[in-house]
Amino acid sequence: MGEWIKKILIYIAPYGLIEKYRRKQREKEREERQREREKKKAEEARKKEEAARRKEEARKKKFLQEKTSKKWGTFYAEYHEKEGLENHWILYEASKGIGMVGNPYAIFKAFLENAEFQDYVHIWAIKDKEELLLLQKEYQAYGNVVFVYYCSKPYAYFLSKSKYLINDSSFPSMFSKKEGQVFLNAWHGLEIAETGYDAEDGRRLYRNTIRNLLASDYIVSPNLFMTEVFEKSYRLANLFTGRYIQEGYPQRDLILETEAGEAVRKLQQRGIQAIAGKKIILYVPAWEGHGGKNIAVDEEEYNHFYGCLSEKINQEEYQIFIRLHPDAYKKLNRKAQESGRYIPCGMDMGEVLSVTDILVTDDPKGWFGFLAADRPILFYTPEQKLSGTAKKLYSKDGHLPGPYATDLGRLAENLMQADAFA
Questions:
Q1: What is the CA radius of gyration of the chain?
Q2: How far is the C-alpha of 88 from the C-alpha of 381, rounded, in Å?
Q3: Most buried pick, 22, 46, 368, 422, via CB within 10 A?
Q4: What pLDDT score was predicted for residue 83?
Q5: pLDDT-derived band of residue 420, with 50, 70 and 90 as boundaries?
């Protein structure tokens, strides 16, 4: 700037006014630099926090993916001692982690749709990898639904920290209910065969079941008959300090309320060749391998059943599927499991029965729930199994809610008669 201009400015404006302006400019520049430093610092903190968050999420994801471990009991003992309870966590387990099935599944669905439980975290213990991955995909939109491998380190963690525990049978023998935990035993079926202390070697075979029942705060019982089984066969009378909920089985809602399209979709997801619009005949044979008995699965018998009935039915109208007990299903060879005939046990039986038009069975746990659907039930036990069966029924009066057959010829006749009412 020229000297003459400075002189003019000094002449026009007092020097103090100019200096004041300069100071303001310097302060403004300092404030701007400070804001930039704070902005940079905040951005660095945000990035650091985001990195920590991603690291924590990755750690949690890795933790939740840990597989079943023989050491889970050691982890459980440690968590049981050190960890406190989470009041809004619910752990569900059905049939030793077979899937989202049975009464626990029906209760879960009711809770998930109830606004009062929106703040709760629902944890499911699942044994099979394929089933777990399928369920994770199905519930990926729900941030409060978690899946862990049965008898894994995460399983031990959630079993020790969840305030609410829902099971339809028994937790492993390592389980010890903590003070403050609430255990709902949503029992899995109607026991007509001898069980508990009434069964051969029942004291040894059912000791963990009885221990779990005694640890329960609530036991779901479908009727007075089953309550008496708990009281007498499992000898809970005068020992059980909890409460019976004798209000029927929650799974009944799944039989009556599941949409057909949803059930067929789930069957197809699991490799079952279900065709929408075709009626379904479902065969549910009883399983004699309870209590640790090593009984082989006769695939030839099931194939013969399938082949004979397929010849008798109108295949344009009907399709036949077989649902085995979990212990029987896992004994099938891979080819049979992938044949599209055998419904995997990871799919809920209530949802399967919701699209079943005719049920063929000799298993009380199969037909009892199906009574609510008011559809035909045909009873069938192969002749060769009548004398060899190890079960002795509590009910010996022979009254059944449907026709009975011991050979496929007679069953086919009963099927034709039932077809008129299906």
A1: 32
A2: 47
A3: 368
A4: 95
A5: low
Predicted TM-score of the model (pTM): 0.85
Residues in the chain: 422
126-132 long-range contacts, Cβ below 8 Å, gap at least 24?
A: 126/97, 126/98, 126/99, 126/100, 126/150, 127/68, 127/96, 127/97, 127/98, 127/151, 128/97, 128/98, 128/99, 128/346, 129/67, 131/98, 131/99, 131/344, 131/346
DSSP code of 360?
E
In the sheet that holds 404-405, the strands lie side by side as: 318-322, 279-284, 358-361, 377-380, 404-405
Q: How far apart are CA 36 and CA 28, in angstroms?
A: 12
- pLDDT per residue over 278-309, tens digit each? 999 999 988 776 555 556 677 888 888 999 88
Per-residue confidence (pLDDT) for residue 348, from 0 to 100: 96
pLDDT at 53 over 60: yes
Average pLDDT, rounded, for the chain:
87
Angle subtended by helix axes 408-419 and 299-312, to nearest 10: 40
Amino acid letter for position 270: R
Separation CA 74–CA 217 (nearest Å): 26
| Residue/partner pairs of 108-114 with CB below 8 Å, 24 or more apart | 108/166, 109/254, 110/250, 110/253, 112/142, 112/145
In this prediction, residues 395-405 reach a mean pLDDT of 68
CB 282 within 8 Å of CB 304? no
Which whole number is the average pLDDT over 231-250? 95
Q: What is the 3-state secondary structure (H, E, C) of 53-102?
A: HHHHHHHHHHHHCCCECCCHHHHHHHHHHHCCCEEEEEEEECCCCCCCCH
Beta strands 318-322 and 182-185, pairing class: unpaired
Percent of the chain whose predicted confidence (pLDDT) is above 70: 88
